[in-house]
Design a protein that fits this description.
The complex is a heterodimer of chains A (197) and B (196).
Chain A lengths: L1 H7 L4 H4 L17 H17 L3 H11 L9 H8 L15 H17 L1 H8 L5 H22 L5 H8 L2 H14 L2 H12 L5
Chain B lengths: L2 E7 L2 E8 L13 E9 L5 E3 L1 H19 L13 E6 L2 E6 L9 E5 L1 H15 L23 H28 L6 H12 L1
Classes of the chains: A mainly alpha (197), B alpha+beta (196).
Chain lengths: 197, 196
């Protein structure tokens, strides 16, 4: 199914040539703030909460999009995600702009891939009992993954865990939905370089 | 010779009708001049208009979505502009105003899924290589500090310490003007010392 949809999309073709294109706002490494990684990792976590097989789908998508040079295996991908300061295994690793761009592209692609599921959750036209069930399942999985992977002693993680679950889940899903596809990729990329509050 | 391009996403279907701009040597399958457009959102009336209306519509929705992804939820479009959108209780209220006189503004309320469908439908139009219209649409760029919730956050952070300081200072000033009662024994002692 991933292969079918990638053949229809031309938004990631620059990765096939191995020469990512950067807009002039794409800053050098030292301008990338920790919030960018935090946001990207949380969005990946939201994708993993949507479907139990999402981790497999992400690895499959890396191969499909030709991003193996940036994420050759699960360990490298996990290490890249560990740039998120909320992680238990947080470590400032080395990364290039290209690998960050690759992660953004991967996220947009995965958001597009899971868009039907995201839409079901966001739509108010679905039967109420089904929607409540879906939300409960999504929120509990998201909470489990956060407790499992994040350092719950950090204030930042505590804040997230204390947040109203439905608010956090909705924000993440809406961000994912708006980040899907080519237009979404540009939006997400721009948002990662917002000034730090 | 007219070209009609359709963009579908979820509940939204946008149809743009136009011509290639031959003065700019466009190919026949390109679109350089927009003659009309219409958008169907399932459950809402059909919307249609000229290029200017579409440009404002796309611009407003795109900016709203761009800010939303950064966690900024605010109104876009003035109360007298052709299109305005406001976040209201997990919904998005869109006002569309006609340029024709006597036509009342149309209000539509979108849920999150509808908003995303509409945004992605406009994304398709913006990123379509066949559409060579000279749009005046804002590009997706990082927001400025003033656009973020920074100001309100700083204001909230300073409010309570400032209130505390003002209150303490006020109480101190009040106590300055309160006369101190001297005990009678001290007054007597003072009088005897003077007599001596």
């Amino acid at each position: 199914m991933i292969q079918a949809s990638i053949s229809n999309s031309n938004d990631l073709t620059h990765f096939e040539t191995g020469q990512p294109s950067f807009e002039n706002f794409f800053q050098p490494r030292h301008f990338i703030n920790k919030r960018a990684f935090q946001k990207l990792d949380l969005l990946l976590l939201a994708i993993e909460s949507l479907d139990t097989n999402a981790s497999q789908a992400i690895i499959f998508a890396i191969n499909t999009l030709g991003l193996e040079s940036y994420f050759p295996n699960r360990v490298v991908f996990w290490k890249f995600r560990c740039n998120n300061p909320m992680r238990k295994a947080f470590k400032i690793g080395s990364f290039s702009n290209n690998s960050l761009e690759a992660l953004i592209a991967l996220l947009s692609y995965m958001a597009d891939y899971f868009y039907p599921k995201i839409r079901l959750l966001l739509s108010s036209r679905e039967p109420e009992n089904l929607t409540i069930e879906r939300w409960q399942s999504f929120e509990s999985r998201l909470n489990e993954l956060m407790i499992e992977r994040f350092n719950t002693r950090r204030n930042l993680v505590k804040q997230y865990l204390l947040m109203e679950k439905s608010r956090l889940a909705r924000d993440l899903l809406l961000t994912l939905a708006l980040a899907s596809g080519e237009g979404g990729r540009q939006r997400l990329k721009a948002s990662l370089f917002d000034p730090v509050l | 010779m007219k070209n009609i391009f359709r963009y579908d996403h979820g509940i939204a279907r946008l149809e743009v009708e136009g011509l290639p701009d031959l003065s700019l040597e466009h190919d026949q399958e390109k679109l350089g001049i927009i003659l009309s457009w219409k958008i169907n959102l399932i459950g809402f009336p059909q919307l249609e208009g000229k290029k200017e209306h579409l440009e404002v519509f796309v611009s407003t929705i795109s900016q709203y979505a761009r800010h939303y992804i950064s966690g900024v939820q605010k109104t876009f479009g003035l109360s007298n502009s052709l299109v305005s959108i406001t976040p209201i209780n997990d919904r998005h209220q869109v006002f569309l105003r006609s340029t024709r006189e006597g036509v009342k503004p149309l209000k539509i309320i979108l849920d999150d899924a509808d908003l995303v469908d509409l945004t992605k439908c406009f994304d398709q139009l913006r990123n379509d290589p066949r559409v060579l219209v000279d749009w005046k649409l804002p590009k997706d760029r990082p927001l400025k500090r003033g656009d973020l919730k920074l100001n309100s956050k700083i204001a909230r952070g300073f409010f309570f310490p400032l209130l505390g300081c003002i209150t303490s200072l006020g109480i101190a000033i009040i106590f300055l003007f309160v006369p101190i009662d001297t005990p009678d024994s001290l007054i007597m002692e003072e009088k005897t010392e003077i007599k001596k």
